[in-house]
Amino acid sequence: MPNAEAIIRAIEAEQMKGNLPEIHVGDTIKVGVLIQEGGKERVQPYEGVVIAKRNSGINATITVRRVFQGVGVERVFLLHSPRVESIKIIQRGRVRRAKLYYLRDRVGKATRIKQRFDRPVDTNKVEGVKALSKAKTKAKAKRQAQLAAKAES
Description:
By secondary structure, the protein is an alpha+beta fold. The chain has helices at 4-15, 123-152, and strands at residues 28-37, 40-54, 61-68, 71-78, 84-91. Strands 4-3-2-1-5 form a five-stranded antiparallel beta sheet, with no helix packed on it.
C-alpha cells in the first residue's frame, strides 16, 4: 500500500496553481478575488502591498495591506485557493525586512516603499520593451543609411 504522505502530496500537487508570478514582500500587487453575489460570480480586484508571506506549497499565504478611506485594511490570501483568480504585480518594492508589520504604525507618505528595478515586473512587458528598442534601433539605422545616401548624391 502506498505511503499516506505520498498520497497527500499527489493530491496537493493537483490542486496547486502553476501560473503564479514570483511574489516578494514589499511588492505592490493586484489580486483578482472571486466574489459571489446572489447567483452570480464576479472578479473583484484588491490592490495593496505584500507585507508578509507564510508557509510553502499548497498552504502558501500572503498578507496584502492597503489603505481604504483612511483605514488600513489587511487581507490574507491563500495563493492556491480557487477564490484567487489572478495575481498581477504592479510594482516591485525594495525592502530589508521579511515582514513589514511596521507599516501599520505609519501614515501617509511614511508608508512609501522604494521601487526595485533589478527584478522584472512582468515578463511580457520586458519582452515588449526589448522588441520596441530593437525596432527603434532598426529605424535609426535606416534613417542614417538614408542620410548617408543623400550626402553621397
